[in-house]
Write a structure and sequence with these properties.
Length: 213
């Protein structure tokens, strides 16, 4: 029997929870949730999942906005979530640019590692949800299961290909959440590694049909 992964979900922010922009999200006004995304987080919480965010925020390193603006955006997110009965446990972010050569800018694993250490969890089997390849790569290194959403840069990421084996594709965070919660009964404690993948076939499709999980 494989070990049941902890009820934990790691999310990218821009293009997954909120609308993305090539001009960066620099102010609370520019931080606009994708329809259904906050409800999806609340639904995960309701089912006992703890949710954390891991986000590259190189706009800070580029001097496009200050930490105070980032905090204000996250305050907006926390408040909007709270109105729905949802919460994010923590937001791990990388403020650096590629030139800084840090170990936290995804696809580097630093942010994911920080989350695992903070919450004392074993990452194997924990879903990681992103709209870019690097989001998934950062988690796959630890055995997280990769989930791509089509929102944000998702369609472009899908078109480029080269996703980690077993990546599942969902229309958006709401579709991911439904998929995870619908499949719970069959996946948890199930010996078959493919159990649960039949849920929501219209919204969720495996990229690599040979190993959907
Ligand atoms: Mg993103
Ligand atoms: Zn960094």
């Amino acid at each position: 029997m494989p070990q049941t992964p902890p009820k934990f979900v790691i999310l990218d922010r821009d293009g997954v929870i909120n609308l993305d922009s090539d001009q960066f999200i620099k102010t609370p006004d520019e931080w606009i949730p994708i329809p259904g995304s906050l409800e999806a987080i609340a639904a995960l919480n309701e089912a006992g999942y703890r949710v954390v965010v891991a986000s590259n925020q190189s706009g800070i390193g580029r001097g496009l906005f200050e930490m105070s603006a980032l905090n204000a955006m996250h305050e907006k997110m926390y408040k909007a979530l709270a109105r729905l009965g949802g919460r994010v446990e923590a937001i791990f972010f990388c403020p650096h640019t590629a030139a800084d050569d840090c170990d936290c800018r995804k696809p580097k694993p630093g942010l994911i590692q920080q989350a695992a250490q903070r919450f004392g969890i074993e990452l194997r089997g924990v879903p990681i949800v992103g709209d870019s390849l690097r989001d998934l790569q950062a988690g796959v290194a630890f055995g997280c299961t990769p989930h791509l959403v089509r929102t944000g840069k998702g369609e472009a990421t899908l078109a480029k290909g080269g996703l980690p084996p077993g990546t599942l594709v969902h229309d958006d965070l709401r579709a991911f959440s439904r998929w995870l919660l619908e499949g719970e009964g069959t996946r948890h404690g199930a010996a078959a590694s493919h159990a649960g993948t039949a849920a929501s076939p219209s919204a969720t499709s495996p990229v690599d049909s040979t190993n959907p999980r």
